[in-house]
Design brief:
By secondary structure, the protein is of the alpha/beta class. The protein folds into two domains: 1-15 and 64-106 and 153-233, Rossmann fold (3-Layer(aba) Sandwich); 19-62 and 107-146, SIR2/SIRT2 'Small Domain' (2-Layer Sandwich). The protein contains ten helices and nine strands. It has helices at 11-14, 27-30, 33-36, 41-44, 46-61, 67-78, 93-96, 128-131, 156-165, 216-231, and strands at residues 4-8, 83-87, 103-104, 107-114, 120-122, 142-146, 168-172, 191-196, 210-213. Strands 3-2-1-7-8-9 form a six-stranded parallel beta sheet, with helices on both faces. Strands 5-4-6 form a three-stranded antiparallel beta sheet. Strand 2 (83-87), helix 7 (93-96) and strand 3 (103-104) form a beta-alpha-beta unit. The structure holds adenosine-5-diphosphoribose and zinc ion. Zinc ion (ZN) binds at residues 114, 116-117, 119, 135, 137-138, 140. Adenosine-5-diphosphoribose (APR) binds at residues 9-11, 14-15, 20-23, 26, 88, 106, 173-175, 177-178, 195-198, 200, 215-216.
Length: 233
């Protein structure tokens, strides 16, 4: 299990032009979570929900990974077993920056999934119906491979497993409203960095060894430098 966890949220993709959720102008200002991102919404609001994710999938097509994605990809490549890249984001910016083994806790926008038989496929940036009318294995309806609020998030177990051995935690671009990163600091974490644009009411920044309230693309050089220092034999 990794010694260093780089844990991110929507803020790491903000400078790639991908909207965050709770910043002003964020996604949840323009959409109602209960209509398109809540357990059961596929039953009563299927077309609108599919349409919402089709739009977000198409939107990321022309976006580019930013310096934070590429620097994290580089250091992950240098220390593949010592570093775990874990994100709440569903975009593919880390992958497009060349990062491997990214753990997406809330799903992955390019993928669709069948709840009935488990069929999953990466359809890139297409609309769901451009790729499949229905599940090719069992003919039931397909859905975005995204974890909605109040749904099971099976990958959280992988996060908790990684935290067992983690000694350095880097938190980038998350308000902490869904996953409370303060709680991660109880384990054997000896050094932690918090990088956001500004203080979040859901995070107690006094718990972190270093706090960087600046853009991720500006903070990332310092973050990578501290990771290198930490992993030095
Ligand atoms: N650099 C660094 N941090 C940034 C930047 C930036 N350029 N821009 C914004 N931020 C920070 C903000 O300060 C804020 O703390 O990113 C955070 C974004 O917070 P949210 O919009 O709440 O996004 P996130 O924390 O990822 O949301 C968690 O909520 O809606 C669900 O499933 C969804 O995974 C998401 C989860
Ligand atoms: Zn199926």
């Amino acid at each position: 299990m990794a010694k260093v966890i780089i844990f991110s949220g929507a803020g790491v993709s903000a400078e790639s032009g991908i909207s965050t959720f709770r910043d002003s102008g964020g996604l949840w200002e323009n959409y109602k979570i209960e209509e398109i991102c809540y357990a059961g919404c596929l039953d009563w609001n299927y077309e609108a929900t599919i349409g919402f994710y089709d739009k977000r999938r198409e939107e990321i097509k022309d976006k580019k990974p930013n310096k934070a994605h590429s620097e994290i990809s580089k250091i992950k490549e240098k220390y593949p077993t010592e570093i775990a890249v874990i994100t709440q984001n569903v975009d593919d910016m880390f992958e497009r920056a060349g990062c491997r083994d990214v753990l997406h806790l809330h799903g992955f926008l390019p993928e669709v999934r069948c709840e009935s038989c488990g069929f999953t496929d990466n359809i890139g940036y297409r609309k769901l119906r451009e790729a499949y009318e229905n599940c090719p294995q069992c003919s039931n309806k397909l859905r975005p491979n995204i974890v909605f609020f109040a749904e099971q998030a099976p990958k959280y177990q992988d996060l908790y497993n990684e935290l067992q051995d983690c000694e350095m935690l880097v938190v980038i671009g998350t308000s902490g409203n869904v996953i409370n990163t303060d709680a991660f600091l109880q384990g054997n974490i000896r050094y932690s960095i918090l990088n956001n644009l500004e203080k979040s009411s859901a995070i107690n920044d006094e718990l972190y060894s270093k706090v960087l309230y600046k853009k991720a693309t500006v903070a990332i050089d310092k973050i990578v430098n501290d990771i290198e220092e930490f992993l030095k034999p």
